[in-house]
Amino acid sequence: MQKNKQQTSHIKHSMYYILVILSVFSAACAQMLLKRGARQNYVGFWRQYLNPWVIGGYTIMACSLILNIFCMSHGVQVKEVSVIESMSYLFVPCLAFVLFKEKITLRKGIAIAIIISGVIVFFK
User: Fold this and answer.
1) How many angstroms separate the CA atoms of 70 and 16, rounded?
2) What gap in Å lies between CA 72 and CA 77, rounded to an integer?
3) Rounded mean pLDDT of the chain?
4) What's the CA gap between 58 and 1, in Å, rounded?
5) Residue 30's domain spans which residues?
6) I want to staple 27 with a disulfide (CB 3.0 to 4.6 A). Which of 17, 64, 70, 105 is the partner?
7) What is the pTM of this model?
8) Total domain count for the chain?
9) Helix %, strand %, coil % for the chain, to 5?
10) Residues 6+ apart with CB under 8 A from 92
């Protein structure tokens, strides 16, 4: 019975780490929306900053922040969230490559691999 409780607790705790990763990915998606909004020319100051792309980007970014706070309130430590957030250095270039055809140079690829290696080492 004790082992079953430990497994349930471990699965529940792991879920919060997955939610942090989801939060980082959603923040990367929000950045793509912001870039999309910035690429268009709008007439007037307010239209430049109050268009659907920008509003959507900031809304998703706020949801990402709330999800991080939720996970930290359920036992994920700040230092762990900070390390997981470095995965944005993987998500953002990959999304930018797919959506905007931005190049990922060999140098950037090596840097991304080093960062992801650091995340793996941190959690081992």
Assistant:
1) 9
2) 6
3) 91
4) 46
5) 2-123
6) 64
7) 0.86
8) 1
9) 80, 0, 20
10) 28, 31
